[in-house]
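Long-time lurker. I teach an intro course on protein structure, and each term I like to show students one example going from raw sequence to a predicted 3D structure in token notation. This year I'd like something fresh instead of my usual example. Would anyone be willing to generate the tokens for the chain below so I can use it in lecture? Attribution to the forum is fine with me.
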Amino acid sequence: MHNNSLKKFPSIIEEALIEAPQGIHVRLLFQDEGRFGRISDRRRCWAPVPSRPEATGGKGFLYAMEAVSPLDGDISSLVMPWVDAEAMSIFLAHTVRDVQKGILLDVS
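-- Reply from a regular --
Happy to contribute to a lecture. Here you go:
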């Protein structure tokens, strides 16, 4: 979160609590995503004699998205081959199913 977001955070939470249906449990989740993969460039590298390592060209990536509740450590995660608005919508729907108690507030 950026400093401006941190300043607004208490008012965002207060507004979400006011708008939440009566009796619903509100849970705070922090979300992040990351890219993991490889880039195989042909280059020299150390290897014991007489082996001769081979590097196949190409790139491959996977994207991991996670949401965690700092209060109780509950986590929801999903690994996708790409990240875009559609993938984020899929992840949010997955997270809502995992959490099942409370509301999900997106302040991005």
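Some talking points for your students: The mean pLDDT is 80. Residues 29-37+55-108 form one domain.
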